[in-house]
């Protein structure tokens, strides 16, 4: 097995169980699983604040900036909000040229400018490792606010982007990726979740989150909150082309292995489910899609929308002995 220590992007997120333990040790009350911090402005709106940064995930510094921007604003969209402005966080190495650093910022702006999201400032330091991210501020009408763990029994479970980004980037790091597969992953990672968020409001989603470093399994378990079971039809899950082949060749990054250890006990797979199909549930995503639930009535409206970006992957049911059940 090629267990690759590929910790770029959201693969570098601290283990969720470990983070919870640390917060308890620090005697903080910040424990929770929402995608952003929320502050009620008491005028029918709330302020939403989020912070994301991570190591380089692409050979291209410009693309790295694009992915960073998409990922950083995603948490605001996952709450049903509109990102308005951001502060940049950038640690650069002493051997980087001014032109290199500018490429990262240009990449971020290429995503933010069309969305009318302003970078108001930031903080840049010289250190041993390249890190890039944004602190993002957005606003949401309280009536449109989406929470992570509020699905209802009978809801349809949908996702707006394919899975497989973590595995593709791991394969890229050891020069074992097909260029078309890599380019497909990059296209998705540089696509903002704005339209998916708009549709979640239009079609009255009952819950919403984004799929990032903890993979589909981790973020879905947060949504279920030990109160529901999700029945998943594997064949319905959108995937990056050929990603199961990479997983079948045992290309596994370290974050996927961590996710599998943390979440596999809560997932039931049919006995004949192939190894690669099991692995994809734990694949860490960077700038992944939105994962939401909505009533069947609203889902039937959604799929009539010619711009629909969501794919049905399952149904929310009463809690049973496993929180996630996968059928192939």
UniProtKB/TrEMBL annotation:
Presence of the UniProt keyword Ribosomal protein in the record: no
Gene Ontology BP, a term: selenocysteine biosynthetic process
Coiled coil region boundaries: none
UniProt KW keywords: ATP-binding, Kinase, Nucleotide-binding, Selenium, Transferase
The PurM-like N-terminal domain, residue ranges: 34-140
Family matches, as Pfam families: AIRS, AIRS_C
SUPFAM superfamilies: PurM C-terminal domain-like, PurM N-terminal domain-like
Tree of life domain: Bacteria
One GO molecular-function entry: ATP binding
Keyword Nucleotide-binding: yes
Residue ranges of domain PurM-like C-terminal in the record: 152-247
NCBIfam families tied to this protein: selD
PANTHER family per UniProt: INACTIVE SELENIDE, WATER DIKINASE-LIKE PROTEIN-RELATED (PTHR10256:SF0), SELENIDE, WATER DIKINASE (PTHR10256)
Protein name in the entry: Selenide, water dikinase
Source organism per UniProt: Spiroplasma apis B31
Lineage: Bacteria, Bacillati, Mycoplasmatota, Mollicutes, Entomoplasmatales
């Amino acid at each position: 097995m090629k267990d690759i220590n590929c910790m770029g992007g959201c693969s570098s997120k601290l283990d969720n169980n470990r983070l919870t333990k640390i917060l308890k040790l620090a005697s903080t009350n910040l424990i929770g699983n929402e995608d952003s911090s929320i502050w009620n402005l008491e005028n029918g709106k709330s302020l939403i604040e989020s912070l994301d940064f991570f190591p380089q995930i692409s050979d291209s510094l410009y693309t790295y900036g694009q992915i960073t921007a998409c990922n950083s604003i995603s948490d605001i969209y996952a709450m049903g909000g509109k990102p308005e402005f951001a502060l940049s966080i950038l640690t650069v190495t002493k051997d980087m040229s001014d032109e290199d650093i500018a490429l990262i910022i240009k990449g971020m702006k290429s995503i933010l400018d069309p969305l009318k999201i302003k970078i108001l400032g930031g903080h840049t330091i010289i250190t041993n490792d390249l890190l890039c991210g944004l602190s993002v501020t957005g606003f949401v009408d309280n009536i449109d606010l989406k929470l992570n763990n509020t699905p209802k029994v009978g809801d349809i479970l949908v996702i707006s982007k394919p899975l497989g980004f973590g595995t593709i980037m791991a394969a890229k790091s050891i020069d074992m990726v097909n260029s078309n597969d890599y380019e497909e992953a990059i296209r998705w990672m540089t696509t903002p979740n704005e339209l998916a968020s708009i549709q979640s409001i239009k079609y009255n989603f009952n819950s919403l989150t984004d799929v990032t470093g903890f993979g589909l399994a981790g973020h879905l378990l947060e949504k279920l909150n030990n109160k529901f079971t999700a029945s998943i039809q594997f064949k319905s899950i959108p995937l990056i082309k050929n990603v199961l082949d990479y997983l079948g060749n045992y290309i596994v990054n370290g974050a996927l292995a961590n996710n599998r250890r943390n979440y596999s006990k809560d997932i039931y797979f049919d006995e004949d489910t192939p190894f690669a199909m099991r692995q994809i549930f734990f694949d860490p995503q960077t700038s992944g899609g939105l994962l939401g639930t909505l009533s069947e009535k609203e889902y039937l409206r959604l799929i009539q929308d010619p711009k629909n970006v969501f794919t049905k992957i399952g149904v929310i049911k009463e809690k049973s002995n496993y929180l996630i059940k996968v059928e192939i």
